[in-house]
Design goal:
Helix 9 links the parallel strand 4 and strand 5. The chain is of the alpha/beta class. The protein has 2 domains: about 140 residues, HAD superfamily/HAD-like (Rossmann fold, 3-Layer(aba) Sandwich), CATH 3.40.50.1000; about 70 residues, DNA polymerase, domain 1. The protein is built from 9 helices and 6 strands; from the N terminus they run βααααααβαβαβαββ. Helix 3 crosses helix 4. The chain has a 6-stranded parallel β-sheet with strand order 3-2-1-4-5-6, with helices on both faces.
Amino acid sequence: MPCTVYAFDAYGTLYDVHAAVARHRDAVGPQAAAISALWRVKQLEYTWIRTMTGTYRDFRALAAEALDYAAALNGGISADTRANLLAAYERLDAYPDVKTTLRALKERGLKTAILSNGTPAMLAAAADAAGIGDLLDATLSVDSLKCFKARREVYELVTTHFHVSPEDVSFQSTNRWDLAAGAHFGFRAVWINRTGAPPEYDDMSAAFTLPSLEPLAAFETLAAPGG
């Protein structure tokens, strides 16, 4: 049966997580790419450790801690640059396919939502910067649970909010580990593989693999799963 709810991961799927450093590349210096990559890796690592140990700190705090570590390991950055990077992370660039895809889904009468590790304030700022707030029926943050993905309770936020079953939800994520958890929960898992990464998590496979969000506008016409 066609899905009635389309839920999206935010960071990496709707928003470019490397946009903050890209905006301030000259100030960051020659290690900009290394800092940006490690900043992202440490953000995720910190969410997993905090969830496993039950010592929650919100994503805004962890993003700051992760930046400090990434910068320190790569020669450091100034206090002004640090402040500018953290401010930029609150209003990351959306990918070009985001607004048109969400609008097309809404025009088909489908429900749309963000399901994210970000705090409500971070997600509201990002949606405002991208101009997509009016294209979302819900913005669901793990902050209400005080734990992060990939806990089962996080994915339940979608089914509880919309009063639907997991099979009614199409879940889109660029992060393959996040998608694996969504698939395990029972969502139709759609991997937005923007970078051409190799497959993984074979036992929690994606129903579809797409290079961008754009095909979602006519998704129910796709012929066969696993493509």
